[in-house]
Specification:
Elements: E1 7-10, E2 17-18, H1 20-33, H2 38-45, H3 50-57, H4 64-76, E3 83-84, H5 88-93, E4 100-103, H6 108-118, E5 125-127, H7 140-149, E6 156-160, H8 163-172, E7 175-179, E8 193-194, E9 201-204, E10 210-213
Parallel strand pairs: 1-4, 1-6, 4-5, 6-7, 7-8
Antiparallel strand pairs: 2-3, 9-10
Length: 219
């Protein structure tokens, strides 16, 4: 059992759902169109807002906003194999509706599309790419989600899979659990890790705090 938390804040892609194949297909096609090193791009695009990745890697002559719109449409059209991670649906369904949020670097339209494809109902609070000026690894998105839930970020547990998101959660002062279901290589982190949610359950203690049962193993 972990300490108690006022709320849980979940990243989406790679944390609650597996949309990685869809994202890789869209970004690989984009990289090929602009003669960008695919492997280098893949090392840096996960967990970061798409527009920021485009501005970082695209040739100077490219219209970043137009490229973003085209890439977004490609990802919106490619959700056939987007699925919830094992145990994720039951785990979030057991949470009080006012005590969890999704904090994603995806735009709202894409987030809603992928959640629907994965069979997950969006929570009451969702912070998406449009909601902040500075995306992950800045802490702004997690701070905003905590504020919308009426709690302090330091009293939240963040569930993340990507280095940018982990850094954002740390900067927000939250505890972190790393979800590794979609990882192809071990991640170097000091935080507890889980593969998926099948071994986990949650209860609300007498103080109203959320506690995870079947303790998350430290790595």
């Amino acid at each position: 059992m972990t300490r108690g938390y006022a709320a849980f804040l979940f990243d989406m892609d790679g944390t609650l759902i597996d949309s990685i194949p869809s994202a890789v297909r869209a970004w690989t096609a984009w990289a090929h169109r602009h003669a960008i090193d695919v492997d280098l791009l893949m090392r840096h695009m996960h967990g970061v807002r798409a527009i920021e990745t485009i501005r970082r890697f695209a040739p100077a002559s490219v219209d970043a906003e137009a490229e973003f719109a085209a890439l977004l449409q490609a990802e919106m059209d490619d959700v056939a194999d987007v699925v919830a991670l094992p145990g994720a649906a039951d785990f979030v369904a057991a949470l009080p509706v006012d005590r969890w949020a999704i904090v994603t670097s995806a735009p709202l339209a894409l987030a809603e599309r992928r959640l629907a494809a994965a069979g997950l109902t969006p929570p009451r609070v969702m912070v998406t790419a449009e909601d902040v000026t500075s995306g992950k690894p800045a802490p702004d998105a997690f701070l905003l989600a905590a504020d919308r839930l009426g709690v302090a970020a330091a009293d939240c547990l963040v569930w993340e899979d990507a280095p940018a998101g982990i850094a954002a959660a740390e900067a927000a002062g939250a505890d972190v659990t790393v979800v590794t279901a979609t990882h192809t290589h071990p991640i170097d982190t000091r935080h507890p890790q889980i593969v998926d949610y099948r071994a986990l359950s949650v209860r609300r203690d007498g103080s109203g705090l959320l506690r995870v049962l079947d303790a998350i193993p430290a790595r």
